[in-house]
Structure formats: structure tokens, C-alpha cells
Write a structure and sequence with these properties.
alpha/beta, globular, binds iron/sulfur cluster
Length: 416
């Protein structure tokens, strides 16, 4: 990792080309906030820290998607969930080539999958984590990647597809919930060797999740008063990644969140910030093209709403396995795109957002259909949308992506 010096950041932040340097840069930008710096540090250390703890101290860990139900459940089993989607930021062209040339993934395959395959390949001989919780609800390219890695020696477990159609209610929904409870027990058996869960441990994790949802909601409320205190990259990592998996360190994450709330509560409201801000809602993936976030900040935008932001609590009045299943089928990731669209719409209305940025990866036919449907829907309702396609590999975003972000925000500013 080439960490740039403060002087270089001052001179020309635009020459940053690696994701790690963007995070370092963001720490420097947030020199006013020890809490945000801590959160960025936790994000930086997530994958390397979990791998080190696994290698040096035998701390159990598995790769998994790192969002939705998986982290809550995996933590309750005493294991660290390591989000394979976070490995993209360490990837280089060489990793893409490994996927394309060694594993014969078609060139047009989504870059997220190719980067991840390249990263898993690098770990074949390092003694690092070799267990991988896949998920058949993932897209086809990722399912192919899970199978390829199984053949290469990873211990892979895939639960069945968890999908709720928009018209599924009543008995059909109850049957799905029972189905998922069985799936969770299957996962527990694969992880621990026993087809059972420690209910008190799962209840603790559910309570932690709900507590953090409340705290992050508070941060989102405070950000409306202090839109520029926490810049785009920092909030997207804290919410879209950290809130899902706590960067592998739940206690430290929660402490940093508590400190951030204290900082925001004691910060002075700046009226000119409130007048100049262009509130935006972000929907889609957490892009690894961190320069896009920088472009949003520079153009005067502030991501105040995020699709993956907290909305639903996990029920604590039913048995914990059932609670997880109900939460999955009631949440944005239930399957049909309409569940996520409703959440985006609620955010847009609550924040009086000026625009919506829909972000996905080149080569993802799966999410691009949802994004196009959402774009049309919001466009018809008079909400400006920018539909961006980016790449997952390390490096600066393309000039075209940056130009579109800038032009979009300038257009919103002009129409204020
Ligand atoms: S961006 Fe699309 S193709 Fe790529 S991993 Fe995600 S769902 Fe799959």
C-alpha cells in the first residue's frame, strides 16, 4: 500500500489512484473527528485484521457476503464474518487476469466477481481462511465463483435461494419462514458441526443489531443538521459496510459510533452549510471507485440517504431464528426490486432529496435491471436520477464517471 503524505494530499488529491490511499486521504480530511478516523481505520483493518487474527491466534473466521443476515448469524456462532466483497479494494489488474485467463471467466463478467476470484486464488497457498459461506441468492457469476473455489480446495457451503416475491403473504410467507429457519440450522451445522444454535447468543447479536440500527438512525438525523461533517466515503463505509458487519470488530465499531454521536451532538450548526447542501440519496452497490465519492463532495453534494441504511429492526418478541427469517423476508434484500425501491422512495421523501444516484457495476445484468426500473419510476415522479456504472477494480474511476457525477450535481444546484 502506498500511503500518500499529507503534503501530497494538499498538493493534488486528484492523483490518488488506490483505494487505500483514498481511505487515508479521507482520514486526513476528517482530522476534526477522531470518531470518523477510527471508523475509517476499522474499515481499513477489516479483512487484513481478521486474517491476521485467524493466522496468528486461530480466531475462527469465514468468508461470507458480509451483509444481510449472515454477519448477525455468524457472529452468534462465535466466528468472524469476513466480507469477501471488501476484498475488491485490494485488487489489481493481475487479479482480473487470473479470473479471466486462469479460470476462464468471460471478459465481460462483473469486475466484483473477477476481483474476488483473483483474491481467493492468491490465498490458496497462504494458509489464510479457506471456508466460504456462499449464498445461492447471489447472482450467477458469484455462484460460478463459489463452485470454482470449491474445486480449488475451499470448503464452500451454499444455502438455498431466499426469495420473496412481492405478492407473497400469509401461509406462503409462513412456509418461507420455516424454510429459512431450516436453512439457518444447516448453516450452523456447517460452521460448528452441530445442527443447533445458542439462542442466547443469537438474541445478543439481534439486540446488538437493533441497538446499532437506532444509533445509526441518530447519526443520519444529525447529519441532516451537519451535512458536511462526515464526507461521502466515510458515511458510505460506516453505513453500507460497517453497519452490516461491524468491520469484524463489533465492540470497537459500536464505541466509535457512540463517539461520533457525541461529536455530532456537540458540533455547532452552520447555517451556510444548510443553505448550500444538495441532499442526495444513494442506491445500489458500495462502489470501490472511491474517487466518485470525492467528486460528490467536491461538487457540493451530500449523501444523506442510503438504500442500505437502517429501517427495520429485528423482532425480539419471537424466537431468534424465526426473527432472523422474518427480518430477511421483510427487508430490502427480500428478493423483488420493489422492496428496495420503497425504501429509496421513503428516503427521498424524508430528506427532500434533490437527486438520486443509482450505482452498479459494469457487467451486472442482474442489478442493472432493477436500477433501470427504479430510474424510470423516479424519473416519472419528477426525481432526477443518475444511473452510474463503475468498475470494481482498484484505481481511479474513469473520467467519464467523474464528469457525469459533477454535471449531475451542478444541474441540481442550478435548479435549486
Ligand atoms: S454487481 Fe451484479 S454481477 Fe456483480 S457480483 Fe453483484 S450482483 Fe453479481
Amino acid at each position: 500500500m502506498s500511503v500518500l503524505t499529507t503534503l501530497q494530499f494538499n498538493d493534488d488529491p486528484e492523483h490518488i489512484t488506490s483505494q487505500n490511499d483514498y481511505v487515508e486521504y479521507s482520514k486526513w480530511v476528517h482530522s476534526h473527528s477522531p470518531a470518523i478516523q477510527r471508523l475509517l481505520g476499522l474499515s481499513e483493518d477489516y479483512v487484513p485484521g481478521a486474517e491476521k487474527a485467524y493466522l496468528d491466534h486461530g480466531k475462527p473466521a469465514i468468508f461470507c457476503s458480509g451483509y444481510n443476515w449472515e454477519p448477525i448469524f455468524v457472529y452468534s456462532l462465535g466466528v468472524t464474518p469476513v466480507a469477501y466483497t471488501e476484498m475488491g479494494r485490494y485488487s489489481e489488474r493481475e487479479d482480473m487476469l487470473t479470473a479471466e485467463e486462469f479460470y476462464q471467466f468471460p471478459v465481460e463478467t462483473c469486475s466484483m466477481v473477477k476481483c474476488t476470484v483473483g483474491q481467493w486464488h492468491k490465498r490458496l497457498t497462504t494458509g489464510s481462511i479457506k471456508r466460504l459461506l456462499g449464498n445461492s441468492s447471489s447472482c450467477e457469476p458469484f455462484n460460478l465463483a463459489f463452485e470454482v473455489m470449491r474445486k480449488r480446495g475451499y470448503d464452500v457451503f451454499n444455502n438455498e435461494v431466499l426469495y420473496r416475491g412481492p405478492t407473497v403473504h400469509g401461509d406462503r410467507l409462513e412456509a418461507l419462514i420455516q424454510f429459512m429457519v431450516e436453512q439457518l440450522l444447516d448453516v450452523a451445522e456447517w460452521v460448528t458441526g452441530e445442527r443447533k444454535v445458542d439462542e442466547s447468543s443469537l438474541k445478543r447479536e439481534i439486540a446488538r443489531k437493533n441497538r446499532l440500527l437506532t444509533k445509526l438512525k441518530r447519526i443520519l438525523e444529525l447529519r441532516v443538521l451537519h451535512p458536511f461533517y462526515m464526507k461521502t466515503l466515510a458515511i458510505i463505509l460506516t453505513l453500507n459496510v460497517g453497519l452490516n458487519n461491524y468491520f469484524g470488530k463489533p465492540e470497537e465499531y459500536e464505541k466509535a459510533i457512540d463517539s461520533l454521536i457525541q461529536e455530532l451532538e456537540s458540533a455547532k450548526v452552520n447555517d451556510s452549510d444548510l443553505k448550500s447542501v444538495i441532499p442526495l440519496v444513494w442506491a445500489g452497490g458500495t462502489g470501490q471507485e472511491f474517487g466518485v465519492y470525492e467528486a460528490i463532495d467536491n461538487a457540493g453534494g451530500a449523501l444523506l440517504g442510503l438504500r442500505s441504511a437502517p429501517f427495520r429492526y429485528v423482532r425480539e418478541d419471537v424466537p431468534p431464528l424465526e426473527a432472523i427469517a422474518r427480518w430477511v423476508y421483510d427487508n430490502t434484500a427480500a428478493g423483488a426490486g420493489v422492496f428496495a425501491r420503497n425504501v429509496i422512495e421513503a428516503e427521498v421523501e424524508k430528506l427532500k432529496a434533490k437527486g438520486i444516484i443509482l450505482y452498479g457495476y459494469i457487467g451486472c445484468s442482474f442489478a442493472s435491471v432493477d436500477r433501470e426500473m427504479w430510474r424510470r419510476y423516479f424519473h416519472e415522479k419528477g426525481h432526477p436520477c443518475l444511473n452510474l456504472e463503475g468498475s470494481f477494480q482498484t484505481g481511479s474511476p474513469s473520467g467519464q464517471v467523474l464528469t457525469r457525477v459533477k454535471a449531475f450535481i451542478e444541474m441540481l444546484a442550478a435548479n435549486r
